[in-house]
Amino acid sequence: MKVAIVGSGYVGLVTGTCFAEVGIEVVCVDIDVKKIENLKNGIIPIYEPGLEDMVLRNMKKGRLQFTTDISEALEDCEVLFTAVGTPPDKDGSADLQYVLSVARDCGKNMKDYLLIVTKSTVPVGTAQKVRKALQEELDKRGVDIPFDVASNPEFLKEGAAITDFLKPDRIVVGLDSPKAEDLMKSLYKPFTLNGHPIIFMDIISAEMTKYAANAMLATKISFMNDIANLCEIVGADINMVRKGIGSDSRIGNKFIYPGIGYGGSCFPKDVKALIHTAEDYNYELRVLKAVEAVNVDQKSVLYNKMLKYYDGDIKNKTIAMWGLSFKPQTDDMREAPSLVIIQKLLEAGASVKAYDPIAMKEAKHTLGDTITYSEDQYEALIDADCLLIVTEWPEFKVPNFKIVRKLLNKPVIFDGRNIYEVDEMKNIGFNYFCIGIDTTK
Q1: Is 355 helix (H, G, I), strand (E, B) or coil?
Q2: Is the dihedral of CA 82, 84, 40, 59 positive or negative?
Q3: Is 440 within the bounds of a domain?
Q4: Cα–Cα distance, 370 to 343 (Å, whole number)
Q5: Which site in 137, 217, 299, 412 is 20 to 30 Å from 164, CA atoms measured?
C-alpha cells in the first residue's frame, strides 16, 4: 500500500515515518521547498526523540520519500492524509485554508479512487467542507472519480510521539463507507495486531473526539492549578492533595501536577477552537472558558511570587531561567509560559539569562537578543539574583546545589514545576518558592 502525507511538520513527519517503519510505502509532501530539500538530506525540522534515526533508516530502505509535487505523490496512492496546520484565527476559530487547499489539489490531480483522511485537528463539519472542495475540482475537470473522506485525529504527545503512534492507547477513525473502513483496517493492521484498539465511528464524532480529549486534559491542568492557588492561601500542601486524589482510579494521577500553565501547539489552540465551535451553534462552553482564563493567569504566578519577594521592584535584577520550551523533550516554544514570564521581566526592567537543553535555537527565533543564552545551566546562574525553574527537564531535578548557591548572588529559587522538596531546600539554606505550598511559614 502506498500512502501520501501532505504536511511534513510535527504530525505529518511522525505519521509518515511511523507508517514507513512498519513497511508501508510513504511519500511526504510539503510546499516548503527548503524543508523538503533538508529532509531529503536527512535534516529534520523538529526535535522529537528517536525521530531522526527512524527517518534516516526508512529513507535508506526506500520506504520514505519527500516531494513538493502532490501529483507525484498521488501516483498509485489510495490513501492520502492531510496533516497541515490549522492555526487559530483572531476570533479563536481554526483556520481551514490549508486543509481545504489540500482537498482542492487532490481534486485537480487525482486519477483514481482516493481516500482522503484528515489527520489535522479540525472542527466539527470540516469533512463536509473537504468533500465539497474536492468534488468542485472534479466537476471543473468534468470527471467522475470516486473518493471517500475520513477523519483520523492524532493523539501524539510531544516528546513521546513515536511511542504514542507505534503503541497507541486507541486509534480513532471516523468514516461513512465500507471501502474506507477496509482501507483503514488494512493500514492500521500492524498496530492492532498488538492489541491496540481501533474505534470506528461517524466522522463528526471523530472530529469532536480530538477536541474533547485535549479539552479534558487542559481542564485537569487548570483545575489543579486553581486548587494549588487555593492550597497556598489556606495552608494546604498541593503535593499531598495531588497524591490523595490521584490514588482514586476515577481521577488517576496523570495531568494533575500543579505548575505555571499549559502551552504548546495543541491545548491553547484547541480549547479556543472548541469554544468558538460552540458559539457557532449558540452554545456557551462555560467550563472551558474558565479553563482558558485560569491558564492565562497561571502563566504569571511565578512572576508575581518573585515580584512580591522583591517588594515590587525588580529593575536591574538579573534573573536566571532554567527551561524555555513549554514542556520537556521538545523544542516547541509555542504558547510557552516562559514567553509570558520573560516579557514581564523585561518590561519591569530586569535582565534574563536562560538555558534550555534543546529549545535555545527555537527561542532565539522568537526572542532574538532580548535575553542572554547560556551554554549550560550553571553558566546562567553567574551573578544572577535568583533562579526560576520554568521547564522540568530531567537534568534540572538533581543539580549540585553547592554550585547553585555559590554562583547565585543570593540563594533564592522560584520553582514553577515543584521539582524540589520544600523541607530539603530550606535545610540547605535556600529561600524556596513553588506552586501550591506556602513556603514562608
Answers
A1: strand
A2: negative
A3: no
A4: 9
A5: 299
